[in-house]
Fold each of these.
Amino acid sequence: MKIITVADTPSTPNMIKGIFTMRKIPGVTFVHAHTKEELVAAMDEQSVVLIDWECDPGVGADYVYAAKSRIAKVPVLLLCIKQKAGTTFAGIKAGAAGVINKPFAPEDVIRSIAATLKKGQKTRPTVNVEFINPFIDATRNVFSSMCQVEVARKSIFVKPDYKMLGDISGVMQLSGTAAGSVVISMSSELARLVVGNMLGEPPAEELTQDVIDATGEIINMISGQAKASLVKTKYHFTISIPKVVTGPGHEIEHQPGTPNIVVAFEGAGHDFSLQVCLAPNDEAEAAEAGAAG
């Protein structure tokens, strides 16, 4: 395995090399690339690319694009101080496989690289848009009517891992025609803003339990509106009571191989995401087919 680290200074590459040297992991070579040209020239089929995300997001995304254009299957991981939607959306959309938050422990780096390589398995490439659109519409409606925040959809893309892009996430588990989860993930700043607007109060100074509970209520309203829309379709779903998960870089458990569709939004100057991971329920489809016959 060849680990290529892209960084402005040698400190991060030296740290990565030291981690593997101390653990006496054999068969690993290291390259420190300063430019896209050096990165591309160093790459081969056994490479793993680590990009130190201290630079401008657009510049960092250019490095991801360069690596994926050279050898598409080579995994790229971002190294950043704290995972924020506004600073990592560009890299994830460009094709990065995930994020390692700094400061990191040696085990974090080894575990993340190993997990990324293991996730080289194929995933089902698409999710029926009829499953997604009700959640997009409900998110817009609730943010606008209840939180006085107008949101705009920025992009939609397939994300190679299941790590959330925000500090706080509302999780809706679905079963029925398809099984999996729909997650709305946002930064602490945006959560505090929308909750303050909903309650008619200034935003809280920190992510308190009251803010977390109120965020759960917002997700519950989105879930309710989406469920009402899905009832009008030929698909049948049961949506669980949403739960809230907090902490930068948290990950929601999903069925392996389920496609991870991310819809990126912007509201009040903050990025946030709607993450849809649904796999068709073969038993439900068979039952529907039998009923139709």
Note: The CA atoms of residues 97 and 116 lie 7 Å apart.
Amino acid sequence: MYDITLIGAAILDVLARPVSKKELAGRSCPADSVTLTPGGDACNEATTLARLGKRVNLITKLGNDLSGQLLLHYFQENGVSTEDTVIDPDLDTGINMVLVDEEAERSFITNRNGSLRKLALPDINLEALKKAPLLCFASIFVSPCFDVPAMASLFRSAKDQGCTLCADMTRCKNNERLPDIQEAIQYLDYLFPNYEEAKAVSGLSDPEAIADAFLDCGVSCMVIKMGKDGCFIKTKDQSLMIPAYPHTRCIDTTGAGDNFAAGFLYGLSEQMSLADCGRFANMTASLAVESLGACTGVQSLSQVMERFRESTR
């Protein structure tokens, strides 16, 4: 029924730009723009993939409130299925306040009681995993309800269903190391951490050594997001450094990694080579950072393909 299933967070982001930390000490803090946009790892990936033409099933958890209704309407408008999403009337849909500074870097204010960190294994209808050949869990370490045993159970079920299994990652919260998460990540075909996230979990600093450490834990392909340097991809047989798009005009890095993951997933679904998956992902991320908000930069496949063709000439 679908090309890709995404499991993770969907929230609203209130973005203000530019916001200087010095100005926050005052009673009023002026900004050039304050914008309300959808956000959350799985929301960002699902939106971008739908705009690239993919059939996407989003499994997330929302409250039955105004914010939740806004998100459901947004997904319907963008062609993202939420037929397996959980609506909890006792839960507040997550809202993040995102403060973007002059260098396009971000600080977050989050609702600890909102839906962002409430997704749990019982919320996932395992029968829904049969609906797409590709499954992406976005992201490891976001929800404390999804501890390592829960992730391992979900990932094992996905592999039993024959899914190609991918995951994104955020920064570890409790100083976790690779042995702590090996039970879960051993099932992964592809993992998309950024450099700092992978460095923190592995305790290593060289990208090649980091990738090898994850591969030794059972991950089949490591894709390390290297920011302005592009991405580093490694399997047991290949090692690739794919440069970033050189003409990016960075405004806001919110959702850059999620858009990268969406681009890579698109490439996988199109049976692209690993190198082309990396190039396509880099081009997708380059568009994402050129506007304010995680889901505003990428509007169509033709946008990304223009840069992709340019990068392969």
Note: The chain has a mean pLDDT of 95.
Amino acid sequence: MVATLVPFLLVVALLFGHNRLNIGSIDYVMALLLLSHPVYPLSSSFNASLSLALVVVSGPLLAYLTFRTVWPADARRRRIHLTDMMLDEVSSMAAEERSSGRHAVWQARLYHRLLKLIQSVSRSGEPLPPVTSGALAVLAAGNAIQSLQQIRKAQPGTPTARRADLALQRLTRLRQQPAASAGTLRRLADHLQRQEHGAAWNIDNAARSIDANLEFFRSGALRT
């Protein structure tokens, strides 16, 4: 029984010698000893041993699937995941009315994700300006959405409210059509400036920020 285990134990030397596999080598040895039951005589039946083998293998497999889908362990995929969450949040904000309290929660969540994104990029050694500029553009879009919702609520049925509603509809597809969303916001900002409306600057700032970061909103900058 010991002789049959020796070849599998010697494989650990090869795993330890590889710089990308040595971290998991101890896990391999522990799983091997759990599955082998090096005692004599064997007390488990074949079905019990098979069940134990499936359990030991399914645990790491489940963890792998979780990290692939829920929270990726790879630094690049984490950055993409954070970017996706920020952009999806903006689209959902534009699609539904939110109270000022909910907007404060959104801002706090966005600031947290922004800092995590910048921290991740800093550690990777990649250039920061594209990421910081894109993240601040997302924040500008969120502030513009809040202004648009206030306009729609304060002036129902007016041409300005209809323009604000159109801009919000565009922003629900910000990731798919960032240039069109920026154009709609720019035209509304010009309209509001002629009326000397206080929200004109917020909306114009969002339009300029989106225009300057089209690739970020398409998520292409972090996927390449």
Note: Confidence is low (pLDDT under 50) at residues 220-224.
Amino acid sequence: MIFIITNDIVSNKEREDGRKLDEIRPLKIEAGILKRADGSAYLEVGGNKILAAVYGPRESYIRRLLRPDTGVIRCRYNMAPFSVDDRKRPGPDRRSIEISKITAEAIRPSLLLERFPRSMVDIFIEIIEAEGGTRCAGITAASVALADAGIPMKDMVVGCAAGKVDGEIVLDLSEKEDKEGQADVPVAIMPRTGEITLLQSDGNLTEDEFDKALCLAIEGCKQISEVQKEALKNRYEA
């Protein structure tokens, strides 16, 4: 899906944390921080702290998953028990399984897996601290880790969300805004082509509000994409 931005989405209004409606939280990305992974990344956005590690491509020991014409990817998204205020029960739950599947589907279109038949790429995303928007942040971190692993890609995938809070369309919802807001629209794109690889919507939005939220999320993705590139540049310049 290609989406062309036509709306004016800039506003001078401020949110509770002092950000403008179209402003993302403070963002930091580092590549190549885990020596034992083939590729890795660390991401902070707002109060989120996320590690991503990639292993592969390598031959799968699970024969039923092998495909003779292409490689396959598996993704494991996990929130640490201490990542949220109310201690989370260790291990996978319905939400983490769903986000693992969504993340794999969002990233798969960017990978040239046909170059690695009968092989597997494993992606691990660990949420160390959570403060809203972890699925999009996890996709962003995982894509940097894949690039760090040297896996051929059409483009890095970057995720960002927009939503509706107090009747206003805002970018990059915090945890409080996510819980108290009226809608949430997570998006992931390949910035070079504009192809959308993830689009979800939770809540009530008019058609105009949805278009505005989508435009805003895409603009946020483009901003984050520049930080992804800078992280890889810093990694290999060092």
Note: Strands lie at 27-31, 39-45, 48-59, 72-79, 119-129, 158-165, 168-171, 183-190, 195-199, 202-203.
